[in-house]
Amino acid sequence: MSTIYIDFTDIGDYEDFYAQLKEKIKLPEHFGDNLDALSDVVTGGLEMPLHIEFVNMTVDQLENFEDLLLTLEDAEEETEDFTFTYFLEQYEDDEGDIVEDEE
């Protein structure tokens, strides 16, 4: 299974997201930078099996990219051999232990 990691450390908007996605996945020339095009390519245009993992997301990014997360979760339900996960950035708890939240 291929795994594509999208690091949200330097992603501030959808333009940044699509730029990183295009670096990691060979997308069709006609791909439009929008959620409908992303859904179409994931559900029928990419080689499977495939896992996409978002790492280092902030709580603000969870809100700003909620439609993106929902789009990929829907694609996961519709597409055999496609999985998707996302992780919040690491932080230290009150005891100084590093904690990484998984959604």
UniProtKB/TrEMBL annotation:
Domain of life: Bacteria
Domain Barstar (barnase inhibitor): 1-88
Pfam family, any one: Barstar
InterPro entries: Barstar, Barstar-like_sf
Similarity remark: Belongs to the barstar family.
Protein name as annotated: Ribonuclease inhibitor
Originating organism: Chryseobacterium arachidis
Upper taxonomic lineage: Bacteria, Pseudomonadati, Bacteroidota, Flavobacteriia, Flavobacteriales
